[in-house]
Amino acid sequence: MSSNITWHKAAITKEDRHRLYGHKSAILWFTGLSGAGKSTLANAVSSALYSQGIGAYVLDGDNIRHGLNKDLGFSEDDRKENIRRIGEVAKLFVDSGQFTLTAFISPFRSDREIVRNLVHPSEFIEVYVQCSLEECEKRDVKGLYQKARAGEIKDFTGIHSPYEEPFQPEITLHTATDSVERCVEKVLHYLGKKQFISKK
């Protein structure tokens, strides 16, 4: 970083925005294997928040790779850079007073911890979308597991590359047994309990 760059303090603070919007902000970091249901749940929670007049935005792994991170591949270094960039973007959304819902496999614990450390400890909510590899392969919504098994995709998480489960996620959602509606309820309950939003 250049020594000529100086941080410019904003006139409107995050706390100002919280008072204006009537709710706090945080990163809801949905992590899990491909096919576990991360994007589905992130969007369902976003819709539920929207219906309550709460600001939220979904950063989806595939969508981000169409633009901001289209220069990155799937090597370990590129995966780390992918998460680093998303962490910085998510931090900006939190500062803007919105909830940021990120749907990324984000397989490495160390990368998720780096993002956690970008914001206040309470503002990083790790949501483990728990679903077995066997169940995710059965679903294979995008046909990626089939391609990975056939050798058409390299460095695929769960097949060639490890997925490191969270040790102590704030929320665990079991998508093999719980409905989308039930999972959304769990997330909203957590946000209400921790006073990020008003309890309904």
Descriptive tags:
single chain, 200 residues, alpha/beta, five-stranded parallel beta sheet, 8 helices, 5 strands, 13% strand
3D structure, described in words:
With 200 residues, this protein is of the alpha/beta class. 40% of the residues lie in helices and 13% in strands. It has eight helices and five strands. A five-stranded parallel sheet has the order 2-3-1-4-5, sandwiched between helices. The relative contact order is 0.20. The mean pLDDT is 90.
List the helices and strands and how they pair.
Blueprint: H1 14-21, E1 27-31, H2 38-51, E2 56-60, H3 61-64, H4 76-95, E3 99-103, H5 109-116, E4 124-130, H6 133-139, H7 144-149, E5 171-174, H8 180-193
Parallel strand pairs: 1-3, 1-4, 2-3, 4-5
Helix pairs in contact: 2-8, 4-5
